[in-house]
Design brief:
Layout (H helix, E strand, L loop, with lengths): L24 H8 L8 E3 L5 E5 L6 E2 L1 E3 L28 E2 L14 E5 L4 E10 L5 E10 L39 H6 L6 E5 L2 E6 L14 E3 L2 E4 L12 H12 L2 E6 L4 E3 L1 E2 L25 E3 L15
Parallel strand pairs: 1-14, 2-6, 2-15, 4-8, 9-13, 10-11
Antiparallel strand pairs: 3-5, 6-7, 7-8, 9-14, 12-13, 12-16
Length: 315
Amino acid sequence: MKRFFSADSFWNQPLDSNAETDPRSDDFINRLAVDPGGPFWINCNEYAMPVYEVDDTTPRHTVHQWALEPWHHPGRWAPREKYWSHGPGFGQDVPIPDNATPDPGTDAHLALVDWSRNLVWDMWAARRRPDGEWESRTGMVYAAEGSGVWQTSDFNVKNGESIHFHGPSRAAGVPIVAGLAMRHELLSGEVRHKIAMATWHNAFQQFVAPATWTDGFEDGGLPEGAVMQLDPSLNLKPFGLSPAATALAKAMQIYGMVNVDNARGNVVYTEGLYGHPGWTWDGILSPDEFTRIPLKHYRVIKLGPITPMGDSRSH
């Protein structure tokens, strides 16, 4: 069963049984409980990440740059001199199936993987234009079986900017397929990698690896890149989870969860099934299943070195 990135990638390594709890773990958990917060939800039907397998028969497209409007998200985004951009090598000859459908939410993420060529393309704010061409605000291309880890120095980003000015489609500057629970994994009953999560309570200008940036705005919040863990000794049966949710929860116990983005609540991410005829999470996985598990059953693993940089609060 395929999974993204190499076997020794950070994303595919289980947590050490002796992993230390961060001294501020209780404070972080208490912050996550503040509205909008509370127990985790599963982003499977909304704000999920659609991933399409492609090959040499898939139609090729140029993905054009979709620039930032001066007042995108009124009241939050100010006019800027810089705009969203695509990363190196992205945009030409991108294989996009005819049925490809970005996440219908405002984020409109979309990912494509060609296993034979060992390539992933991912985008934020992707859309098909009326003329049939594609455009996106960000875009990256990278190795499907690589490390899945970038460095801040890989991007010419300056303090106060958005990482989206330099190609990455996640606010933490990580691949959007990193930590994504895929349909085939959840149907098989086993997820063998860390799980991507997000919260509203991310730290302002503080992040830890594997994050390369942050859009957090809360002083003292949880740094993007932080790893959380669902108590590995917790008996999941009393919570009445579906088999798919049980597989996801076990991955959160064994591999942990990585804070990769801002969200209006506490969420974990699965593959979005948009555009696949007959594919649905109905009867398989429900967005509210983890709301049965109180936040007291989670902890934050001891943080690595904190980088004091990131997006500005006006973003």
